[in-house]
Each structure stands twice: as structure tokens, then as C-alpha cells.
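#dry-run=false #mode=assembly
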Amino acid sequence: MDLQIALLLGQDGIVNGAIYALLALALVLVFAVTRVIFIPQGEFVAYGALTLAAFQAGKTPGTLWLLLGAGALVALIDTVMALRAGSMGRLKRIALWDLALPAAIAGLVLWLEPGRLPLWAQVTLALAIVIPLGPLIYRLAYQPLAEASVLVLLIVSVAVHLTLVGLGLLFFGAEGSRTTPFSEAQFNLGMLTVNGQTLWVLGASVVLIVGLYLFFGRTLYGKALRATAINRVGARLMGISTTMAGKLSFTLAAGIGALSGILIAPITTVYYDTGFLVGLKGFVAAIIAGLVSYPLAAAGAILVGLLEAFSSFWASAFKEVIVFTLIIPVLVWRSLTSHHVEEEE
Amino acid sequence: MTTPILQVNELCVSYGKVEALHHINLKVEAGKIVTVIGPNGAGKTTLLSAIMGLLPSKGEIAFQGEVQRDIEVEHLVAMGMTLVPEKRELFGEMSVEDNLLLGAFMRYRAGDRDQGKTMDQVFGTFPRLRERRAQLAGTLSGGERQMLAVGRALMAKPKLLMLDEPSLGLAPLIVREIFHIIAELKQTGVAILLVEQNARAALQIADYGYVLETGSIALEGESRALADDPRVVETYLGLGGKKQ
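#status=ok
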């Protein structure tokens, strides 16, 4: 291995690491606020990438129908519950968020024929389809179980993951897709060639991480999410409902996932089930951070990315094995250094 | 007669099969301090939790004359009810200032943007919080934590402030200070429902009092009358209860 290869691998590792960092942050966020280990995080990566790819192939993505279906289902459940509780005030909000919004997005997509639009408009539409799936899935799968134990929520996550992977196969087929890069530019830095997409991935990750930092540190809604993570009862007494916090964190997680998928789609071929593996690597990074620390999760993600890149050079057959084996010493170290707190039954 | 801020009729709360509160009737008039005293385990905290919607209950709770069917915490907070719980439930890893800001979360959602002014008023009531505004809530002393919990509740500009054992675990001097502040809060027009084990201090500042024993109201009356009632003196005030 000479310096040039090392630089190339390093670049690869950091780019992938940036994506894992985004996913790890989303996982930490969702876990802190809702105690859900969000295995389906990866499906949002695949859905984001493949929805964009479907636009570029001139097809209508199946995720659009999922959005309409999930919206209608949530509207039905919530309407029944609102009628039972006798509170008519909720009906307007249900009609707006669960029926009108998905319908508006669907109308826009069918009317605009995204295949002919510029890339930024395609990306916007893909995000508009995938992001609302986050809060809808929270409403359908997790909200009724908000008080359940972490284990129950984890099992629900597995179910949601399997469902979404199955739907992904149905919507997009078994073939993988790539999308057109955001930029064809290439830069030569000494021995190293950096292409435009790499810079896009790094730039977008940094912008997103800084954005999240400002959101949590400066805005009241960001602080409300942190408050829910710190003290659920205290937050409820301030009027910050667990449901609102859950939906907001799932919206953020869906957005981060979909955007990650859109960013990597020009670099790697994305299949309907690619998201799981990508999401799991984000999960390794989140575990390194003990599912609590955001900066540690980001650092862990870069480590995972670099490890993956260099092991694909030395022992490419064992690339995944090496990355996932990392979790064992991390868990041993974590269990030796941290105090174990029994979950209340 | 004006409509009371809070009217509780025939409230029952059960934990599983065990009924913890039996047919409680209670009311809080506008601008008054009402106290519920009673021994440990009488159900005082349960009562406040049920009124606040943290626990399921049977019976009727009317807030500002409106019977609440949809007893959800968030909804009640939006209507102007706040609870300072026994455990304070502060956001320990956040600054004092952020804790206070979150107290006004519901008002922010409703479109109010005068949080800065309300915070100045809270700092006027609790100057010590101003000094500690950048400090993490988890690093405050016991008395300061209680002040922050009350200050955070006041940020919501409540119509009814419910306090659960504000004297719990505090040094006598601080208890006096806290009670002094509660008595002052009355001047701002907020109605207060104060639950206390420290019966003497509570009856001193309250207008009306209830004695809760094993889940039922055993006695009620004007707080002066209660403070002179031989049963209260004997059980809750002890010797010398009348001297102060």
C-alpha cells in the first residue's frame, strides 16, 4: 500500500463515515426521545435514494402510494378516536396533515412529471414523499406503545423494518439503481483526486450536523425534544406532549435518512435492502456513543467508515465482519466502564 | 358567587383494584390559596396527579367552570393549569434559563412571544435564579431547585398553580422563604392549590384548607378555623401549634 492508495481509502472512509454519522445522530436522537431503537432508519435511506432514482427513470415511485395509504390509515384511526372522545377540534388537523398534505404531494408529483425537472426539484420532491412517512409510521406503530419497555419497542422496530423492506421490494423491484451525480466536477489535490459528489456528501453532512446542533441548542422546539429526552414527566407538565416529541424526532430521522440515501445514490448502487446494512453501521457508531452522546456518535461513525474502507483493501471478503466485530470490544468496554441501570418494569 | 377556578366533584382514583382516593370534593376560588394537608400516604400527591391528568380518575373536574372530559396534561397546561411536582422534575442537564423558557412552551406554541418579560418577572421573584441563569439545573442546591421549579411553572402564566410539598427536603430557613414567596404570589392573582405535610406553615398562608386522611376529606374549613380546630392541633400541629 502506498500513500496514494491510503489517501484514496481515507477519502472513501470519511465520505462513508459522514453518512454513518448522520444516521448515528438520527438513531441517538430517536432513542433519547422515544426509547425506540430505530432499526428502520436504513429503509429511509433506501426509500430516499430509490424514489429519486424512480423519478430519473421516468416512473412514479411506489413510496407515493405508501404515503397516501399510510395517511389514510392514520386519518381513519384518529378520526374514530376523536369521535369517541367527542373532540371535534382534532378533525381539522387530521384532514390537513393526514389527507390533504399527502394528496397535495401526490398531486404535485403526478402533475409535474419529475423526470424532466432539474435535479434540485427532484430531490425536493423525493424528500417531500419520504419525510412524512416518518411521523406516520410513528403514529401507526409506536405511539400506541409509547409507555412500553425498550424491548417491546425494539421488537416493533424489527417488524416495521421487515415490512418496509418488503414494501421496498414491491415498489422498486430487486434491481439496484444509481442516480446522476450532483456535480461532475473533479479536483486534483496533489496525488489525490476529489470528485464533486464527495464534496457534496461532506458539505451536506457538515451543514446538517451544524443545523441539528443549532436546532437543539437555539430553538424552543429543539430544547423541547431535549427536555423530553431528559425528563419525560417534566416535559409533559410543560405541555410538551410525548406524541409531539415522538413525531418530531421521527420526522427528523426520516429526513436525515432520506437525505443520506439521496447523497450516496450517485456513489453506490442502492438496492431495496441496502439501507439495512448502512443503517446498521450507523448503529455501530451510535453504540460506540452509548446511544447518548452526539459528538461521540459522529466520531464513532468516522471510525467505522475508515475501518470499512481499509479493511475492504486488505481483506475485502471480511469487510463487514471486521466492522461489525468492532461492536464486541466496544460493548465489553462499555459494560466495564458504565454503571448499569436496571430498566423499571 | 363567581365560578371557582377549580371544582372537583366526587373524584375517585384507583391503583389497580385498590381505591386510593374516595369521592373527593374540593374547590379553589379565584385568587385564593387553598391547602390540602394530611399525613404521608393520605393520597395528597395522587390527588394533584389526578387533577393534572397524569393519573386516570373517575368523577368530574371543572376548570374555570368548564367540565374537562379530555383530561390530558398538555390540554390542561394550555388552559392555564400547572403543577410543580414533588420531585420537581427539572431538566437537569439544561441551563436554568432553558428550563424557564420551556415553562413557557405552551404559550410559545399559542403564539405568545413575551417570554423575555415573563422571565424578568420570575427573576424579580427569585433573584437567585438570575445569578444562576447559565448554570445547569442539576447543579443547583435544593432550595434553588424548588425556586426554579416554581419559576418554571410561573413562566406559563398559570391561572391555577398547584404545588406539591414545596417544603420537602428543604432547610427551615429556605422553607420560610418559599412560603413567603407563595404568599406573595397570591397578590398577582393566581389561584394556588398547595399540598403540604408542613401543616402549620401551609395554614398560615392559606385562605381555606382541607384535611386529607386515608384517601378521604376528613375536615375542611377556613384555615384560621382549621388551625384552631382541636383535632387538627392535636394531630398536625402538635403542642405549641397555636403559639406561633
